[in-house]
């Protein structure tokens, strides 16, 4: 899983996905895709289908290459940085974390806050907000001014590690989806439909890359690859789990941005059973995926999301199960190799 390690450890905050885009482009070109990119930075790989000209459908597979992060908003007179978020952060996860500030060179920083020793009783009761944090680069003001400017991107710093049967790191949301997309494409030798595999940008700030790329592609079928919440944790009951680590790829019924096409949903479930691929059904009440954007273009595509269950989403210790990753790869490859009649009209 060296490619997955590279993907999750890379920096690529929403709007500044350059490094990830370069790697994804290289991987798709090696798989004989025609690769282009657009103004928003989406990486679009195209492979012509084996069906007859004039009859081929278009399948778009999307995994977003961006991650939640920050942008430098202010440098104070001591050289400490303040920052604005790009994407949804829980401030509780930021205490004492390491970050990478992409200035004129990459700089390691730490997120600091007022020490507990000098907090008032009232301050101890209050939940920390983003405005309470700052970034310490360990450099004098003059050096910070030389290397950093307002607008420089910031991402969390973390290396991928094994945790029993699982993997843990930042950015499995959604580099694991991008990894599944590439690895499934590697397995698919023939696809009847024209196949577009897209590394989308700016998903974490409103599905923006998927809107732009799908408007150009106008797919008949859209498959988003993402993570879903695995809330199978102490203190949660079964009805709150949403998905369970190790129980297979999560086939989405719905999320906060989209309701999946029921025929496509059934096709995915039936394929999983036929191929003996472990799967679970996913109904997430909030959140959204690129499927929501693909569904809205030019009359609407039949869309669905295949997700890898993930604990501790939007933190530096996101955790996925190796078997769920492989199941998602296998299910996507099975569908692309045999999509069926692709008539999803209701």
Number of domain modules:
2
Uncertain regions spanning at least 5 consecutive residues: none
* Strand arrangement, major sheet: 1-2-12-3-13-16-14-15
CATH superfamily of the largest domain: Zn peptidases
Specify the structural class: alpha+beta
Give me the strand/helix succession. Answer: HHEEEEEEEHEHEEEHEHEEHEHEEH
Count of DSSP-assigned helices? 9
Strand content: 25-35%
Averaged pLDDT = 95
Query: Oligomerization state of this entry?
Result: single chain
CATH topology of the largest domain: Aminopeptidase
Which second-level CATH architecture of the largest domain applies? 3-Layer(aba) Sandwich
Overall strand count: 17
End-to-end C-alpha gap: 40 Å
CATH class of the largest domain: Alpha Beta
Task: Give the helices and strands, then pairings.
Blueprint (H helix, E strand, L loop, with lengths): L1 H8 L8 H13 L3 E4 L5 E5 L10 E7 L4 E7 L5 E6 L11 E5 L3 E7 L8 H5 L8 E3 L4 H7 L5 E4 L4 E3 L2 E4 L2 H16 L6 E7 L7 H10 L3 E9 L19 E6 L7 H13 L4 E5 L7 H4 L7 E9 L7 E4 H16 L9
Helix pairs in contact: 1-5, 5-9
Q: In short, what is this structure?
A:
By secondary structure, the chain is α+β, with helices and mostly antiparallel strands.
Outline the structure in words.
The structure is a single chain. Helices cover 27% and strands 27% of the residues. It has 346 residues and is α+β, with helices and mostly antiparallel strands. The chain has 2 domains: 2-67 and 170-337, Zn peptidases (Aminopeptidase, 3-Layer(aba) Sandwich); 69-156, Peptidase M42, domain 2 (Elongation Factor Tu (Ef-tu), domain 3). The strands form 3 sheets. An 8-stranded mixed beta sheet has the order 1-2-12-3-13-16-14-15, sandwiched between helices. It has a 6-stranded antiparallel beta sheet with strand order 5-4-9-6-7-8, with no helix packed on it. It has a 3-stranded antiparallel beta sheet with strand order 10-11-17. The relative contact order is 0.19.
